Amino acid sequence: MAITGFFSAILVGAIVGALGRLIVPGEQKVSALTTVVVGVVAALLGTALATVFGWFFFTLPFLAELAVQVCIAAVGVITVAGSKSRQPA
Q1: Neighbours of 31 (CB within 10 A)
Q2: Separation of alpha carbons 62 and 84, rounded Å
Protein backbone atom coordinates (compact mmCIF):
# COMPACT_ATOMS: atom_id res chain seq x y z
CA MET A 1 0.00 0.00 0.00
CA ALA A 2 1.33 3.38 -0.97
CA ILE A 3 1.50 6.20 1.55
CA THR A 4 -1.33 8.01 -0.26
CA GLY A 5 -3.55 4.95 0.15
CA PHE A 6 -2.79 4.89 3.86
CA PHE A 7 -3.73 8.55 4.29
CA SER A 8 -6.82 8.10 2.13
CA ALA A 9 -7.96 5.20 4.31
CA ILE A 10 -7.54 7.32 7.44
CA LEU A 11 -9.39 10.27 5.90
CA VAL A 12 -12.28 8.15 4.64
CA GLY A 13 -12.35 6.30 7.99
CA ALA A 14 -12.57 9.57 9.88
CA ILE A 15 -15.46 10.77 7.73
CA VAL A 16 -17.33 7.46 7.88
CA GLY A 17 -16.73 7.17 11.65
CA ALA A 18 -17.94 10.71 12.25
CA LEU A 19 -21.08 10.14 10.17
CA GLY A 20 -21.72 6.88 12.01
CA ARG A 21 -21.30 8.67 15.32
CA LEU A 22 -23.69 11.43 14.23
CA ILE A 23 -26.58 9.05 13.57
CA VAL A 24 -26.25 7.34 16.96
CA PRO A 25 -28.54 9.14 19.42
CA GLY A 26 -27.23 10.31 22.75
CA GLU A 27 -23.73 10.96 24.01
CA GLN A 28 -21.01 8.42 23.32
CA LYS A 29 -17.94 8.16 25.52
CA VAL A 30 -15.69 7.28 22.59
CA SER A 31 -12.42 9.03 21.72
CA ALA A 32 -11.70 10.54 18.33
CA LEU A 33 -9.02 7.93 17.66
CA THR A 34 -11.49 5.12 18.39
CA THR A 35 -14.00 6.78 16.07
CA VAL A 36 -11.44 6.85 13.26
CA VAL A 37 -10.47 3.21 13.84
CA VAL A 38 -14.14 2.17 13.82
CA GLY A 39 -14.62 4.23 10.66
CA VAL A 40 -11.67 2.62 8.86
CA VAL A 41 -12.93 -0.87 9.73
CA ALA A 42 -16.47 0.09 8.69
CA ALA A 43 -15.21 1.52 5.40
CA LEU A 44 -13.33 -1.68 4.61
CA LEU A 45 -16.28 -3.91 5.53
CA GLY A 46 -18.76 -1.70 3.67
CA THR A 47 -16.65 -1.78 0.53
CA ALA A 48 -16.34 -5.56 0.77
CA LEU A 49 -20.11 -5.96 1.19
CA ALA A 50 -20.83 -3.61 -1.72
CA THR A 51 -18.48 -5.63 -3.89
CA VAL A 52 -20.04 -8.95 -2.86
CA PHE A 53 -23.57 -7.73 -3.56
CA GLY A 54 -22.56 -6.11 -6.86
CA TRP A 55 -23.68 -2.60 -5.96
CA PHE A 56 -21.12 -1.15 -8.36
CA PHE A 57 -23.58 -1.46 -11.24
CA PHE A 58 -25.73 1.44 -10.04
CA THR A 59 -25.27 4.88 -11.54
CA LEU A 60 -24.26 6.25 -8.16
CA PRO A 61 -22.65 3.22 -6.48
CA PHE A 62 -20.79 5.21 -3.89
CA LEU A 63 -24.06 6.25 -2.22
CA ALA A 64 -25.10 2.65 -1.53
CA GLU A 65 -21.57 1.84 -0.41
CA LEU A 66 -21.42 4.93 1.81
CA ALA A 67 -24.77 4.09 3.39
CA VAL A 68 -23.54 0.60 4.27
CA GLN A 69 -20.26 1.98 5.62
CA VAL A 70 -22.04 4.54 7.83
CA CYS A 71 -24.46 1.92 9.18
CA ILE A 72 -21.57 -0.40 10.03
CA ALA A 73 -19.76 2.52 11.68
CA ALA A 74 -22.87 3.35 13.75
CA VAL A 75 -23.07 -0.26 14.95
CA GLY A 76 -19.35 -0.15 15.73
CA VAL A 77 -19.70 3.07 17.73
CA ILE A 78 -22.63 1.62 19.68
CA THR A 79 -20.64 -1.54 20.38
CA VAL A 80 -17.52 0.31 21.51
CA ALA A 81 -19.48 2.83 23.59
CA GLY A 82 -21.48 0.03 25.21
CA SER A 83 -18.38 -1.97 26.08
CA LYS A 84 -16.71 1.11 27.61
CA SER A 85 -19.75 1.79 29.82
CA ARG A 86 -19.66 -1.73 31.24
CA GLN A 87 -16.10 -1.48 32.52
CA PRO A 88 -15.82 -1.32 36.32
CA ALA A 89 -14.99 2.07 37.76
Answers
A1: 11
A2: 32
pTM attached to this predicted model: 0.79
Radius of gyration for the alpha carbons in the chain, expressed in angstroms and rounded: 14
Mean pLDDT of 9-27: 87
The mean pLDDT value of the chain amounts to 81
Cα first-last separation, the chain: 41
CB 41 within 8 A of CB 71: no
Residues whose CB falls within 8 Å of the CB of residue 39, separated by 6 or more in sequence, listed in order: 12, 13, 14, 15, 16, 17, 18, 20, 73, 76
Contact 69, 46 (CB under 8 A): yes
